[in-house]
Structures are given as C-alpha cells and as structure tokens.
C-alpha cells in the first residue's frame, strides 16, 4: 500500500541510526543508506542531518515524518475496512440441485472450504431432471445457478461445461424388487443374457458405449433397449413398470423406492463424477473451483 522507502525512512527517524534501522528491518546498513539517499533525491530535500553520532531529522524531515505516519495509518485502516467489507459482502455460489443430482458428496467439501473462506455463501437452487430441457440448462450454466454435482461423460454436455472430478461413479444394474436377479450380490455380464437392458443411446456416453460395444461382441442374446440421451425419473419408472434392467450408477441407488441397485461386474470405465461448471465461469466461481481442487 505504500513505498518501501517510506517504511525505511520511518525506521531511521525512530531509531536515529542507519545501523539500528537496518537491524530492525533485517537488511544491511548500506541498503538503508541507499534507500534514504534515493528518497532524498526523489523529493529534492535533506531529510536528515548526518553526524558521527547518528542521524537527526531536519525541519523538513520532521514534517515529512509526521505525514508519513499518518499515511501509513490511513493505509492500514483502508486495508482493515476492505477486509471487513469482504466479510460482510459474501461471494455467492449458487448450487443447482435436482432429484438425480442431489449433491450429497459436495457438502463435506463445502464445509471444509467455508472454514477457510467464510465470506463465501451457498445458495441451493432446485432444477428439474427433464430429458427435454436438461441440455438447455447445461448450455446456460452460470445464469440460473453456477454449478451442479453429478456424473458427466456426456459428449454433448462437455461441449459447454467442464468437470472437477471428485470420484468415479460405477456402473450398476437397477431392477424391480421382484426381478429374478434380485438376489445377486453382483451382476455378471452372462447374467444379462436374454434380458432386456435399457441403456443410453449410442454415441453419447463413452462409458456406456464401451460396455455396449463389448456386449454386442460377446453377449449377443442381450436385448438392448435405447433410452434417451439423458435419464430422468421417467427412465427409472420405465424400468420398474416394464421389468427390464436399467444400466445405472451407484450414485443413483436410492432414486426409486421400488428398484434395487446391484453392482455390475465390469472392468471397463465408470463415469466421472464431480462438480460441473461453465467453461467460462465468473471470477468468484473460478476462485472457488481452484481452491476446491487443492482441498480435494
């Protein structure tokens, strides 16, 4: 907030000695003398009377000293006021939350972040998991709300957003509670033979496409049924009402009360899961994401 030369000048005036000021400031006496000489040259004034016993302020130097103290005091008060304003005027992070994206994994991370940055506040904004409108929501992320938390390997979504990964969501099988496979601890791929399997359409999800390709090559008796590019609650209702198996994720195991979710024995990729935010976030969201990346 103020010149280093000014700080050195005040130290010399108060100590009455270049060497004593140097000890106080943890620099050499030569460096102190050079800074004072430069300050006097800059101002065109003699600030000190030099003698073998030390230095003493001139009349002009005394006036400059009093004003320098006032300047530093005002600078410190300005910093203090700015910090108080920052505390009272919180940065607001708006979190979108929906039925399929409840953001439960986000809140422990938020609490850790907020301990270090209490000026940030969180607003939870509800939105709908609607197959027809979700892409528009993603395109305009940063307008209605700043970020959401969920699974994301959608090629279309990633044209508009970026992801801070928190973990990998594992592929699972969701099915009605009376399904013949309900007692399995883990669904093997061969268990899916002769079953109806609902999956996201080809060409939209890398993890789904990898599994689909493998099933088509090795388990041709599985009847794959295309779902929409995006799941919503109607997708889970369809699974329960038709008796088909739904390719799902472990993070969605409690979505539908009439369905059970069983792990799938699949060694291929899962789905990246994390904080989804705009490719062009505002400054406060960018700072928030940067700090979270270090905390996680």
TrEMBL record:
GO annotation, cellular component aspect: protein-DNA complex
Family under the similarity heading: Belongs to the LysR transcriptional regulatory family.
Keywords: DNA-binding, Transcription, Transcription regulation
Gene3D superfamilies: Periplasmic binding protein-like II (3.40.190.10), Winged helix-like DNA-binding domain superfamily/Winged helix DNA-binding domain (1.10.10.10)
Taxonomic lineage of the native organism: Bacteria, Bacillati, Bacillota, Bacilli, Lactobacillales
Domain spans labelled HTH lysR-type: 1-58
Any GO molecular function: DNA-binding transcription factor activity
The UniProt record lists the keyword DNA-binding: yes
Identification of the protein by name: LysR family transcriptional regulator
Superkingdom per UniProt: Bacteria
């Amino acid at each position: 907030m103020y010149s280093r030369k000014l700080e050195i000048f005040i130290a010399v005036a108060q100590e009455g000695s270049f060497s004593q000021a140097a000890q106080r400031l943890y620099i050499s006496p030569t460096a102190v003398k050079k800074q004072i000489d430069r300050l006097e040259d800059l101002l065109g004034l003699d600030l000190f009377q030099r003698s073998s016993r030390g230095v003493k302020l001139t009349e002009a130097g005394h006036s400059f000293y009093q004003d320098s103290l006032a300047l530093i005091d005002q600078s410190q008060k300005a910093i203090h006021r700015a910090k108080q304003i920052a505390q009272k005027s919180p940065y607001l992070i708006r979190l979108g939350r929906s039925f399929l994206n409840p953001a439960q994994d986000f809140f422990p991370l938020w609490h850790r972040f907020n301990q270090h940055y209490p000026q940030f506040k969180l607003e939870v904004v509800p939105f709908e998991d609607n197959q027809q409108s979700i892409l528009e929501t993603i395109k305009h992320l940063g307008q209605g709300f700043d970020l959401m938390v969920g699974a994301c390997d959608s090629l279309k979504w990633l044209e508009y957003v970026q992801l801070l990964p928190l973990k990998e969501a594992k592929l699972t099988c969701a099915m009605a509670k009376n399904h013949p496979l309900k007692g399995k601890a883990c669904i093997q791929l061969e268990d899916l033979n002769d079953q109806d399997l609902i999956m996201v359409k080809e060409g939209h999800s890398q993890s789904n496409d990898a599994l689909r390709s493998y099933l088509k090559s090795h388990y041709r008796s599985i009847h794959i049924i295309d779902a929409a590019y995006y799941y919503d609650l109607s997708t889970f209702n369809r699974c329960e009402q038709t008796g088909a198996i739904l390719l799902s994720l472990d993070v969605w195991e409690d979505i539908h009360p009439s369905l059970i979710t069983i792990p799938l024995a699949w060694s291929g990729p899962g789905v990246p899961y994390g904080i989804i935010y705009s490719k062009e976030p505002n400054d406060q969201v960018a700072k928030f994401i940067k700090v979270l990346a270090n905390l996680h």
